[in-house]
């Protein structure tokens, strides 16, 4: 332990550390040269060359892959067979085992392996101890359900010669047409082809072959020999088969070339979405060049790309290899279950006649080409037909979004770094002084002793428990960063245990791998190892992580992993993990495994008291990470372009199954101007994960420092978030049970309106009908908002009517966030300002009922639980549906929850929590003069239980709609009731 000799010594130490860490501060822009292009990635370049060869020889090109008809077997919903790869030079046919599972969920799963590697009949180079098989354990981490084989799937008796047709899915409405020679699969729904595999003949499984030593070229003829090889077959360029060098790092390849590739076509579909994480528009661009298109494929290879560039297919921190294609009336998708480095080319073309593709409609086809460096070929097929069905199926397969604690969806205040425990407490007090709500304050790496996790710097954080106690007084939380790198230093108990238990990632020689990150020399926990997870769980107990309390939660950063001296700032691909898998096999899952371990650890920690839901923020992610926490878009910049990019990035994550997403409000790098900061808070108030964060070299920018009028405007945005927390929590419940995005793009909400399929600058909050269009342009005082139909919308702030399909320009001075309410919806609020969400637990509710100009009905829901425990799994929740019937003019509340053993106890705890106000926007004109409404509660007869309650009607004025307010109807939020707005006879029946 270090000791303090007074304030002067501490200042000197801090200044020294600050100077030291500027050595690690990134440059002002991303170093693109540190990250590969496709042309610099051997297998990517080879597979693109393979594609180029096929396209250039389209009239004579035939895929060398055929399905051996004699090998086909079908039983219990599973088809097996052998795909043969013909090698023209030798005449050999390599055997590639094929499995197609037809699932009860309506999904199909196609996997292709390689028999020689599968059986271990290969030789590894360099004396490697790596596994000989192709990596086949991605499903162990990503897949949690939906795998039951279909009992109703069957081979059709009318299969034509040379094809096998399998009927499956709901009412056997799906078909898989498997052509044998060449091997092609068409997936049909209701007789129409929606997805095609290998239709372009780009299937490519790089088989194992021994390295044949060749005579080295004569001096001066090296380039000539290489060019001659490329001319013979550019896809068989051997220069990167056996080793590959980039950025001064050489990757040994003990298994030789082993990439897998497949073309996936979406006939009749112009728009595709997904495969995060990238910057750029929600509707993915083409990648083969041309004006407005990318020149490189979209890359999935989790890396620490700080200050990333805009509109780029470059890799970022996370990878979800899930793509959806959409057109009016139909949504389909594929999940490419591969954890290795992956690239995806996209080309859009006009459809040409194809006699083998009967039933195809539409004018545009999106053709995609996927290639991964290693592993088996493993693809799930989703035939929809709606966005909601796709989201539900994907959630069933990979797991639904975690239902977080309520504090996690409120506002988070963070920077690198709050420098002392007194600093934290001072920030906490100043939020209260300025009446600004917040729930969580965060600590970056400086809280530790010399970057050693599970420690506190005794000089700067001498009393962590006292700090957490002050936060807890207003039900606030602390989040501390814990990264996967463990400092390699003497007398550090965590490192000593990691080494003694042999739980660290190894290098290619089988020795513990040493890399560099914030602490300097570091070791990395191998969370693929079950024993490592068990050990990691032990570190979080209160007696081991001394100074931690129940209101401390965890931030997992740098888990790509980020390695300062590694190739592309990450781990060498020939490092070794548990089970002797190479890092290249499983790179993109690495971050998920670390969060999985931390989730298990924090869950176990809480079991010593009342179990509580973990909260974990992760930077790196993969399919399935949504089960364990939240993500953010990494090290962005304080620039308008980065604010603008945040919306499509968050939306794309949402439709890709990980909706608990956000971006650093204000920008991580740099100092935002005041207008940018304000607009970012307004946009951030509609990120599912809402956190402000800043780099250590930036100026302090807590909201109370902004000065007037900026402080007041930011506070307004924060209070809007807190008022709408009931609606946010209900949207999270939908994500948790249905897989639906929390904030939704136009195409997802209006799937039949092609004019809105590419929109990504506006979004809907859950099922509330709230449509937000943040200002994203510097100096703008208005925004254009697109409405998909004739349904009326109203300005959230003053009830001004906005109606008519098409673009509408809304005034948006700095103090105003453009926010509309769609007619036909009811949404809940809590309007009393509080210091934190926990203090709102028993506050009354406001219900906003939004009606159309034709007096149409409206409906909405509210989900409510204790916001902390797992008791909701045993019925401890309130789930109400609110319905306004235009014909009877009655608003009802009905129970839509299922009872459990803790339902009654929770209902008892919420007795007295009431609805204090009902606001009806777009109130009918005949309500003019209305002063009362009739209210009846559950179980009370109208003759005995109906009572009169005040109602105030406000007439329409100019463009502003009429509205009415029911003041304190004195009904409980958890019970059934009705409010009768009609002026006719009262309903004498019981509810």
TrEMBL record:
Protein name, as recorded: alpha-glucosidase
Compositionally biased tracts (Basic and acidic residues): 213-233
DUF5110 domain location: 847-891
Species name: Viridothelium virens (Speckled blister lichen)
Region (Disordered): 213-235
Gene3D superfamilies with a match to the protein in the record: Glycosidases (3.20.20.80), glycosyl hydrolase (family 31) (2.60.40.1760), Golgi alpha-mannosidase II (2.60.40.1180)
Origin organism lineage: Eukaryota, Fungi, Dikarya, Ascomycota, Pezizomycotina
Superkingdom of origin: Eukaryota
Residue ranges annotated for the Glycosyl hydrolase family 31 C-terminal domain, each copy included: 739-826
Similarity comment: family membership: Belongs to the glycosyl hydrolase 31 family.
